[in-house]
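Section 4.2 – Deliverable D4.2 (structural model, holo form)

The reporting period included a commitment to supply a predicted holo structure for the target in complex with adenosine-5'-diphosphate. Inputs used:
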Amino acid sequence: MIVLKFGGTSVGTADSLANVKKIVQGLGQDAVVVVSALGGLTDRLIATARMAAAGDLNYIPECELMAQRHYDIVQAVVPEERREYTLTRIQPVLRELRRLYDGVNLIADLPEKTLAQIVSTGERMSSVIVADMLGATHLDSLGIIRTEKWFGKDIAATDLTSGLIREALQPADGLTFPVVMGGFISSDRQTGEITNLGRGGSDYTAALVAAAMDADVLQIWTDVDGFLTCDPRIVPQARVIDSMSFVESMDLCTFGAKVVYPPTIYPVFHKNIPIRILNTHRPEAPGTLISDAHSSHPRTVTGLSALKDEALVTLRGTLATDSTAISTRCFNALARKGMTLHMVARSEAAGSFAFAIAAADMPCAVKLLKEEFAPEFVDAEMEVLEVVTDLTTIAVVGDNVKNLSGGISRLKDILEMHGLTVRAYSDRTSETALSLVVAALDTTRALTALHRELFESL
Ligand code: ADP
Ligand code: ASP
Ligand code: MG
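Output (structure tokens):
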């Protein structure tokens, strides 16, 4: 069995859906197809919900335009004999959407769970349209992909979900392949309320299905030729990486490479199921293979990625000289609340160290650290020296990055030679990543300079 995931960029127009059809029909083996909402729709659903909550009556024509977009796509891609049937399945969802918007407008508020219901309509409709376009079996993800609460977030209840996927897809009476499911959407295992796996989460749905079914491969179909050496929207010279290890892809995605949603890698890595990133608009391109095979390239750097909206917290104190013990305490204190440090670095100032974290997590992180180090704070053995926001953490990733000639100092020199200030840096971020923190405004210049030096000067 093979699992294919088509992102919004692959299901946004009648033309790209025609490519999806060709790709699936050319497979010649059992397949599960996971689809995102029509390209750009999730953003639009959210923006319209905010409009409705703010009392802006333009939510009504916006809602009608979204409905019309679905009708037009049905008309263009679903064979005539099935079209009526498709409409009877998406019309109730569109009516529900309109009622939700009216409700939000009436109460002038947008509760989280209502927003989850609103955004779910995207994948609920796109999956029906793709199934009917293909004449395939449609499976409702809401009953199968289940979540549970973790520090206020909805995360996949993986064991329960795997069991439900296997049950639903067992080759029993009447089940025919291909099967089409909506990505991203889920429901709470306790309350049954609609939830989701987070923005970009369709990749993760596909990985959960691939892992549960021991698929031969997980194919992620998108709008670029594969995993590139850097975000092509920032560095247009970025090139396709023909293969990389699971660990490299995990580091690149965790540090911001948007092409795959970070939690996606783990379930397939665990089952040693390879991932191939492919371009729906150029299916003949070989794409990128992510697997456990170690690269045969002598390369030290595989790719660059960048996490925006970061904050850097610098702590100082006599204790900071024992950086390993301090880092461990920081990591643990924050991990207990579901927060991740992106890098820990010794700072230039004596007896201090700094860590980078998502700016949104920063106020809570500082509070937790003050609790963790309360006795030390009282005795003035520790203090928060500085908190800086509007930063970007850049990761330079490769299985052999530790062998990069000149190491982290060389990377720092490259940036400084371009007149950029490195706020913090570390060669201990992970076994396979070196990281540097720069001002958000310098992100493009920093990535461009590093890319030129590491990939274009060979
Ligand atoms: P989809 O709708 O297929 O899920 P996404 O927009 O989530 O598409 O992801 C694909 C986009 O990710 C590409 O269009 C590309 O601009 C962006 N991207 C960012 N970093 C990378 C990278 N390192 N390699 C490839 N694409 C990247
Ligand atoms: N439609 C969702 C989003 O835009 C999920 C996805 O595309 O993966 O975030
Ligand atoms: Mg995506």
